[in-house]
Amino acid sequence: MAFAPMIMIEDGLINLGRRLGVKESMGTRVLGYLYVIAFVSFIAPLWARSQVEGVGNGWARNQSGTRRDAFGPDHVSASPIQRVIAAVINNSHRSSEFTKTKLNFIHHTSILDLPKMLSSASRRLISSSLRQSAKPKVFNHVPSRGIMTLKTKKYTAEATASGAGRNGTTSSNGLELNLALPKELGGTGNGQNPEQLFAMGYSACFLGALQAVAKTMGKEEMAKKAVVHTSVSLGEPNGQPGFGLSVDIKVEGIDEELLQAGHAFCPYSRALNQGVEVKVSTA
Question: Superkingdom of this entry's organism (predicted)?
Fold first, then answer.
C-alpha cells in the first residue's frame, strides 16, 4: 500500500516539471533514482521487520501449541515472503537447539544489514545506468539535419528571372537565356530549363571538388582524367505535395575513395545533404 502514494507523488513531480519546462536529461534521471532509493530505504526496513516478526510470532504460537505448524504450508494466513522465510528457517534449523533468541538475532541482523545492502545495490544500479546512458545509441540514433551557414562570403553570383517563369528569361552577369518547359512537362523544349542549369553547375562544381581533394590524396593525375555526368530529375515527391528533385552523379576515371572525398567536399553536395540558409524577402 505504501507504494501507491510514492507513485502518486512521483507523477505529481513529473507533471510539475513538465509545466515548468523541465526537459528529461541525465540530471532528472539521477534525481528519479535518488527519490526511489530514499523511499525504499525508508519503507523496506519497516516491511522486512513486519515479515520477520510475523514468522517469529508464528514460531512462538507453534511452541505454545496453539498452532500445528506455524512455519509450514498449513499456515494459510502467512504471506508468500513469510513462507519463504519459514522454509529457510525450517531447513536450516531442524534440531531442537533453535530458540527464539536465535530468531531474534536473525531478525535484528537482517534489519540492520538491509540499509547497507540496499545502499550497495542502489550504487551499483546508478553506476550501471550512468554507464549505459553514456554509451552511444548506435542502433537507435537518428542524426539531425543541420543547416549550413557561411562565416564569410568569398564570391556571390546574382541572377534575375522575369517573364513567364519557366517559359521566361533569366540573366546573370551578362549571360541571358530564354527558358522553356521541356516536352516531358508539356512545353516546347525550345530553350533551357532550371534543371539543366542546375545539372551543369553541379557537374562543374563536383569536378572542381574532386580535383581539389585529389591534391591532398596524391591522386592529381587520376582527377585530371575524371568526367562527371550529372542527372537532375524533377518529379512528385513521396508523401508531399508539389514537386521535388533527385540527383544522380556518375564519374568516370576515378576510384571510390576519391569519389566519396569529392562528394564530401563539394559545396553543392553539402548544400543538398546538410541544407543551406535561404532568406526570402520582398524587394
Answer: Eukaryota
Q: Residue 219 has what DSSP assignment?
A: -
Question: What pLDDT score was predicted for residue 160?
Answer: 97
Grid cell in block for residue 140: 537507435
Question: Could you write out the DSSP letters of every residue in 123-160?
Answer: HHHHHHHHHHHHS--TTT--PPPP-B--SS-S-----E
List pLDDT tens digits, range 255-280. 999 999 999 999 999 999 999 999 99
Q: How far apart are CA 214 and CA 259, in angstroms?
A: 10
The domain 154-192 is placed in CATH, from the list 2.20.25.10, 1.10.357.10, 2.160.20.10, 3.40.50.2300, at: 2.20.25.10
Express each pLDDT in 209-221 by its tens digit. 999 999 999 999 9
Amino acid code (one letter) for 132: Q
User: 193-282, superfamily in CATH?
Assistant: K homology (KH) domain (3.30.300.20)
